[in-house]
Design goal:
By secondary structure, this protein is of the alpha/beta class. The chain has 2 domains: 14-244 and 435-448, Aldehyde Dehydrogenase, Chain A, domain 1 (3-Layer(aba) Sandwich), CATH 3.40.605.10; 246-427, Aldehyde Dehydrogenase, Chain A, domain 2 (3-Layer(aba) Sandwich). The protein is built from 16 helices and 16 strands. The chain has helices at 34-49, 53-67, 73-86, 90-102, 106-117, 150-159, 174-186, 188-191, 204-211, 223-230, 253-259, 261-273, 290-310, 318-336, 378-385, 401-414; strands spanning 14-21, 24-31, 130-133, 137-141, 163-167, 194-197, 216-220, 238-242, 246-251, 283-289, 342-344, 352-356, 369-375, 392-398, 418-420, 445-448. It has a 7-stranded mixed sheet with strand order 11-12-13-10-9-14-15, with helices on both faces. A 5-stranded parallel sheet has the order 6-5-4-7-8, with helices on both faces. Strands 1-2 form a two-stranded antiparallel ribbon. It is globular and about 70 Å long. The N and C termini lie far apart (54 Å). It is an enzyme of class 1 (oxidoreductase). Keywords: NADP, Oxidoreductase.
Length: 458
C-alpha cells in the first residue's frame, strides 16, 4: 500500500519514492507539477468552505470510530508496518493510536473549537457580527516516530477549512495516507483537500515549490530542521513551529505520602513507558522529594517490569543500544561512588531505573529509562529545571493543595505549556494549547462587522 495520498483530481504524473527500514521498503509518489497541486487544492478549498464545521467534525468522528477498533483492517496494516519501521511493538503502537485518536472524537473537537473560537460556527459565516476564516492551504511538515501524531495538525487544518500539503515523516510514514483513505470513504470532500507525500530534508527545490502553494506553515522537528524551514517562510504566511522539547516530573513529599510509593511508581512507569518514551511529552527525569525518592525508585523497578510485560518495548537499533548501555554504565559508576545512587535493570535493555541525587546532563533520551533524582523540596525541583526552560514543554506535577497551585504557576512562568498529573503525561487533549499557543485560533483571521445598521436587523 502506498505511503502517499494524492486525490483523484491530481492527474499529472509524479515521481516515485522509496522509504526503507532495514530489509523493508515502502513506496509512494511525489507530485512534480506543484502549480497543478496548488490549483487543485484551491478548488478543493472552495468545496471545503461550503461544508458546515459540524459536518467536518462528524466526518472525522466517523473515521475515528472505525480506527478506534483494533481489528479495523486499515489500522492493523498500519500498526504492522509502523512496528517494522519504528521498532516499537504492536501493542505499544496500539496504545499510541488509542491515545491520539481518542482526542479526535466529536466531543473533544467541539470542546477545542469552543475554547479557542467561542462559537465553532464562526467558521461557517458571521455569528454575532464576527467570522473566522482559515488559510487556503496549509503546508504541514511532520517529523518523528510517534504513530498517529500527524492527525492533530491535519484535523485542526481541516476544521478551519484549509486544504493541506502534508510531508509525511520518514520514521513513521504509514498512518497519514491510511487515515486519509478512510476519510475519503467517509467524506471525499475532506480527503480531496489533502496531498500527502515525502521529500528528502535537503531537497530545497521541492520544499520551496510546496511552500509556494501555501499561506500557512506548520513545522515539526528538531531545532535545526525547524530553523531551516523558518528562514524560507514569507511574511505573508502564518507560521507554527513544534521544535525540540523536554518534559519532567515532580513528586512532593505530601503527594507521595497521600498516594503511597507503589502507586506513585506505577504512574511514573506509565509516563516513562508510553511511546517507548520517545514522545516530547515523555518525562526525561522525575524529581522526587528526598525522603521518598529511594522507596519510589525501588517500587518503580517492579512497575517498569510490569509495563514491559503488558506493553512490550520495541527493538532498539545498534546506535541507540550503545547509547543506552553507556547511560547505564555512567549511572552504575555513580552508584558505586555514592550511597544515594542506584541502578535497577534487567539483563536486556527492556527498561532501566536510575536513582541519583543530582540532575546529570540529559545525554540520550527514550527507551524506557526512568530517572529518579532526589531533591530537598519542590522549590529545588523547579530550580533544577531552569537550565532547560527554553525547551520545557510538559510537567507531571505530583503535588497537592496550595503547593500544587503555587508550583503550577511557577512552572508556567518558567516555560511549561502543560501541567498534568503523574501517569497522565502522554495523554494530552485537543483542548491543550499545543506548545503554549492556540493552534486552531492561530490558523484563522477574523473579520468583524461594526458600526453598521444591518448588524441590528433580524
Amino acid at each position: 500500500m502506498s505511503v502517499s495520498w494524492t486525490p483523484g483530481w491530481l492527474t499529472a504524473e509524479g515521481v516515485p519514492f522509496t522509504l526503507k527500514a532495514g530489509a523493508h521498503e515502502w513506496r509512494g509518489v511525489r507530485p512534480t507539477d506543484w502549480a497543478a497541486v496548488g490549483d487543485g487544492l484551491r478548488t478543493a478549498h472552495e468545496n471545503l468552505r461550503r461544508m458546515p464545521v459540524r459536518r467536518i467534525v462528524e466526518a472525522v468522528d466517523a473515521v475515528v470510530d472505525l480506527w478506534g477498533k483494533r481489528d479495523f483492517t486499515a489500522r492493523r496494516a498500519t500498526v504492522r508496518d509502523a512496528a517494522l519501521v519504528t521498532g516499537m511493538s504492536e501493542e505499544t503502537i496500539d496504545h499510541a493510536l488509542d491515545a491520539e485518536l481518542g482526542n479526535l472524537r466529536a466531543e473533544s473537537l467541539l470542546a477545542a473549537l469552543t475554547r479557542e473560537l467561542g462559537d465553532p460556527e464562526v467558521l461557517d459565516g458571521f455569528r454575532g457580527g464576527t467570522t473566522a476564516v482559515g488559510p487556503r492551504t496549509v503546508l504541514a511538515v511532520f517529523s518523528g516516530n510517534v504513530p498517529g501524531l500527524p492527525s492533530r495538525s491535519l484535523v485542526r487544518s481541516l476544521l478551519v477549512k484549509a486544504s493541506v500539503i502534508a510531508k509525511i515523516p520518514a520514521k513513521e510514514p504509514h498512518f497519514t495516507a491510511a487515515f486519509l483513505r478512510t476519510l475519503h470513504d467517509v467524506e471525499p470532500v475532506l480527503a480531496d483537500a489533502v496531498v500527502a507525500t515525502y521529500w528528502d530534508r535537503d531537497d530545497e527545490a521541492v520544499l520551496e515549490a510546496a511552500l509556494g502553494q501555501a499561506d500557512a506553515v506548520i513545522a515539526y522537528g528538531g531545532d535545526q530542521a525547524c530553523a531551516a524551514i523558518r528562514t524560507k517562510v514569507g511574511p505573508h504566511q502564518l507560521y507554527e513551529e513544534h521544535g525540540h522539547k523536554l518534559s519532567f516530573g515532580i513528586v512532593s513529599a505530601e503527594y507521595a505520602a497521600q498516594h503511597g510509593p507503589a502507586e506513585v511508581a506505577r504512574r511514573i512507569a506509565a509516563d516513562c513507558s508510553d511511546f517507548d518514551q520517545h514522545a516530547c511529552l515523555s518525562p526525561q527525569v522525575y524529581l522526587v522529594q528526598r525522603e521518598h525518592a529511594r522507596s519510589i525508585a525501588e517500587h518503580l523497578a517492579a512497575a517498569m517490569r510490569r509495563e514491559a510485560q503488558d506493553s512490550p518495548p520495541g527493538t532498539i537499533d545498534a546506535q541507540d543500544a550503545t547509547v543506552l548501555q553507556h547511560r547505564r554504565l555512567v549511572a552504575e559508576w555513580r552508584a558505586a561512588t555514592s550511597d544515594d545512587s542506584e541502578v535497577w535493570a534487567p539483563d536486556g535493555l527492556e527498561w532501566t531505573v536510575v536513582l541519583d541525587d543530582a540532575l546529570m546532563p540529559l545525554s540520550g533520551a527514550g527507551n524506557r529509562v526512568a530517572r529518579i533524582v532526589s531533591v530537598p523540596d519542590v522549590a529545588a525541583a523547579v530550580d533544577a529545571m531552569r537550565p532547560f526552560a527554553e525547551h520545557l514543554q510538559n510537567v507531571g506535577l505530583g503535588a497537592v493543595g496550595e503547593e500544587f497551585r503555587r508550583t503550577a504557576r511557577e512552572l508556567a512562568v518558567l516555560g511549561a505549556s502543560r501541567v498534568s498529573a503523574p501517569g497522565e503525561m502522554t495523554k494530552p487533549s485537543m483542548v491543550w494549547r499545543h506548545d503554549g499557543q492556540p493552534r486552531i485560533a492561530g490558523l484563522v483571521r477574523w473579520c468583524d462587522i461594526e458600526l453598521h445598521p444591518e448588524l441590528d436587523r433580524p
